[in-house]
Amino acid sequence: MEKRVFVLSAHLDDAVLSASNRLMQPGTTLVTVFSGMPPDDVALTYWDRLTRASSSRERQRERLAEDDEAHRVLGCDSLRLGEQEEQYRSGPLDGERLAARIGDVIGRAAEVWIPAAIGGHNDHRAARDAALAAVEAAPERPEVHLYADLPYALWYGWPSWVTGREPRAYLDVDAWLDGELSYRGLDPRRMTRQAVELSPRARALKEKAMSAYRSQLPALSLDGSNPERLRNVLSHEVAWLLEP
């Protein structure tokens, strides 16, 4: 019997960018939290303007179609909670209600993958905190992995413990990454590092899945305009096993 594994994604592209290797494994379900349509009367938001959208609602429809395309490439099951992301919300998010919704979905999961909220995006942190609350309320605590949010975790590239290369002179990327985890409300002392180098097949599948998010890649500098960032996203993925 396959164990039930859930990978939570704050937005429509986050888990594919950050945890594609886990999504490719059998028995994995991708759960996207903030995937709802904007209100009818929403003004064009900053991010949608940045990505040259003419309508936030039309852009969201486009992004949902892109997301479907990416999931077909990876072959993972998926579902969406339909919550509105921060740029479309008119009021505060009810964290307790969100935790209950996530808890209803993950049920008796054996393993849950959650964004670490590196970079500090409010939606990433809200999804993380609600998922951790759902885990604590679960009848049996699943194994919890916090994955590095890409591309935000690559501000200085991967640390040497990920790549195996010599550390850079005058730059301690490891210290920055641990500091970022602490700053975002996590305790690195409870987190065991996990780094995977994507195989040629996994890399090719991830690159094909990522290419589906054509409306978002330029604004994330993942359209080839920043070759080093793109190489890093396609070469490794990082997570931390969270100790109880």
Give the number of DSSP strands: 7
Radius of gyration, CA atoms, in whole angstroms = 17 Å
Strand content: 15-25%
SSE order, as H and E? EHHEHHEHEHEHHEHHE
What percentage of residues falls in helices of 4 or more residues?
25-40%
Mean pLDDT: 96
Q: What characteristic shape results from the CA principal axes?
A: globular
InterPro entries: GlcNAc_PI_deacetylase-related, LmbE-like_dom_sf
Pfam families: PIG-L (PF02585)
Protein name: LmbE family N-acetylglucosaminyl deacetylase
Organism: Saccharothrix algeriensis
Defining key terms:
LmbE family N-acetylglucosaminyl deacetylase, LmbE-like_dom_sf, GlcNAc_PI_deacetylase-related, 244 residues, 10 helices, alpha/beta, zinc, seven-stranded mixed β-sheet
Q: How is this structure best described in words?
A:
- By secondary structure, this protein is of the alpha/beta class.
- The chain has ten helices and seven strands.
- A seven-stranded mixed beta sheet has the order 3-2-1-4-5-7-6.
- The protein is globular and about 50 Å long.
- The model has no long low-confidence stretch (mean pLDDT 96).
- It holds the Pfam family PIG-L.
Summarize the entry for a quick read.
The protein is of the alpha/beta class and about 240 residues long.
How are the secondary structure elements laid out?
Elements: E1 5-9, H1 14-18, H2 20-23, E2 28-32, H3 46-50, H4 56-74, E3 77-80, H5 95-106, E4 111-115, H6 122-137, E5 143-147, H7 160-163, H8 173-183, E6 191-197, H9 200-211, H10 227-235, E7 236-242
Parallel strand pairs: 1-2, 1-4, 2-3, 4-5
Antiparallel strand pairs: 5-7, 6-7
